[in-house]
Amino acid sequence: MIVQCDVLVIGGGAAAGRAAIEAHDQGSSVAVVMKGAFGTSGASAFKIAEIAGYNVADGLVDPADNPDTHFSDIMRAAAGMADPELAKILTEGAIDSLRGLEQMNIPFHQDGDGKYMEVLGCFATKPRMHLIPGHAEPIVHAQKEAISNRQIPVYEWMFLTKFLVDDNRIAGAIGINREGELTIFHTKAIIMGTGGAGQLFSYNINPADITGDGYSIGFKAGAELVNMEFMQAGPGLIYPCKNMFNSWLWALHPKVTNGLGEEFIHKYLPPGMTLEMCMDLRSGHYPFSSYDGSQWIDIAIQSEIKEGRASKHGGVYVDFTDINIDKLLKKKRGEELNRSWNISVNWLIENRKLDLRKTRVEVAILGHAINGGLLIDDKAETRVSGLFAAGETAGGPHGADRLGGNMILTCQVYAKIAGHSAANFAKNNELIPLPHDQIEEETVRYRALRSINGSIKPHHIKKELQEIMWRHVLVIRGEDSLTIALEKLRSLREKCQSQMIVSNNKELMNAIEAENLILVGEIITRAALLRKETRGSHFRVDFPSRNDKEFLYRIASYMQGDNIEHRTLESEKEWVRSYPYEIVHA
Questions:
Q1: How far apart are CA 229 and CA 400, in angstroms?
Q2: Which of the residues 16, 72, 99, 367 could staple to 201 if both were Cys, CB 3.0 to 4.6 A apart?
Q3: Of residues 377, 401, 398, the one with CA closest to residue 389
Q4: C-alpha angle 463-467-468 in degrees, rounded to nearest 5
Q5: CB-CB contact of 111 with 119 (8 Å)
Q6: What residue spans in the chain does CATH classification 1.20.58.100 cover?
Q7: Quick one: which of 126, 350, 134 has its CA closest to 244?
Q8: For the whole prediction, is pTM greater than 0.90?
Q9: Which fold has domain 232-367?
């Protein structure tokens, strides 16, 4: 089957949906493709947390807040690793994007006066994080309705595996559906809203279809990946349910023990820091970061699990059953923390049948989101002409750390830009002929995967990969662990080529996903090896200090033949001086 359109949008989440709507409204014929069912495919609709944060510096809670302050927070958290132009565009487009969500009747948590509830998000200096109940699922369903009303064709259960490119210009894409039928999309422009690569890790808070496809396919088509060593990881519930462990929960100072019943975090703390201090710092942001001393909680949990002292289901025990709400209310931001605690408790009761006040839970460190992605410009275009990206698939607006509440905002702001830019590109360019040699090459690849006379199922390859990445690359990094990871990834790639068995169409898709994940895992690991310092979410035990003298640049990865190569993008030192990375505790 051959489908022809002006703009092809890939993905089922908040970024893809917004891009499809914008491209259509700009006059383009649009087709949407996703690996699963519309409304459940992708990370946006995955109910992994009680709320989604959405940063808008409207000044309603703090009149001193504005887009400039929001921008300064981004740049400070980025530690020299964000593109200032892209960050500026993000903050300036936030209020307009909020108006767009209001028009779609997206619900937000409100206070007693009917105003938006706005809280202090991760790494922020002002309370601007609006709260959407049910994570980003309401956005996805509103966009689904809007796409249906526009009669935009949607191809569900379709896995695109290769972009067709001629002379660095997009010609189309090729993929298969779950029956194994080949489909070719002949298009002028492609927008990727395919999410990240959370399934790289054995512990993660991503749905099963987030397998780095956009990174891998875009990379092989000629786009660059930037900032891939910087990623969000953090504590998450793994038993009796799976859920994000929101930062404010640490303010309650829960009891944390390993599988032997021992309290252990204090053993990892540097001199002068108490457990209570560390937990209070950790309550300020969900993701792991090396910048303020809170990192020792994550390091302690990860170390205990890796060293064999895990709880029954592979984490550590966290106990809230003896919390003192009166003590919480006396803390700084006590009322806000109490409201957040109540949101968490009630949501978990209603959606997970879990009452934190009565049940001890198990927690591990989970992979979450990549702060980098495909390098884009101010039009959301990659280095491949006609190839655009938005949301977690795109890199540039974020840096070493990312503000909580900025990702779904990025999906909306940059997806609108991508949709507008792709539609303009389609207006000004004609379709180019399909490169039939590339189509034949990809069909030969499918046949080759099916013909390997091996014994290892693709999902076993994936599990082995996840263990490698979780154990050697997530949170605690060093030259030894990263080198081991690279060696194991190379061995795993050889297994894919010689020992895998593909018996049906589902396993064919799983095999291609495994190959995509291995490639992305290698890119992340190589970038982490090159950055011989500690900066934000990138923590090197062998280089525990930040080194602006030698590493004040971003690492961009690109494909040269069959090899992964790297180049550096110098950070603008004036921005780094203007927004210094504030170290609270050395």
A1: 9
A2: 367
A3: 377
A4: 115
A5: no
A6: 436-551
A7: 134
A8: yes
A9: Flavocytochrome C3; Chain A, domain 1 (3.90.700)
pLDDT of residue 581: 61
Residue the block writes with tokens 């809670």: 61
User: What are the tokens at 245?
Assistant: 């462990």
pLDDT block averages, 10 residues each, the chain of length 586 = 97 97 98 95 82 92 94 94 96 97 93 84 93 90 97 97 98 95 97 96 92 97 98 95 89 95 97 94 92 94 97 97 78 76 89 94 96 97 98 95 95 98 98 97 95 94 97 97 98 94 94 97 98 97 94 96 93 72 44
Nearest to 290 by CA among 545, 66, 101, 72: 545
Distance (Å, whole) CA 1 – CA 3? 7
Structure tokens at 304: 């205990």
| Sign, CA torsion 458/9/376/81 | negative
Cα separation, 224 vs 554, in Å, equals 12
Residue 412 tokens read as 């909306």
Neighbours of 130 (CB within 10 A): 28
For the chain, give percent helix, strand, coil, nearest 5.
Answer: 40, 20, 40
Best CA proximity match to 361, nearest among 329, 296, 314, 308 = 314
Quote the CA–CA distance of 334 and 324 in Å, as a whole number.
12
Q: Which two tokens stand for residue 317?
A: 């025990």
Enumerate the CATH 3.90.700 domain ranges in the chain, comma separated: 232-367
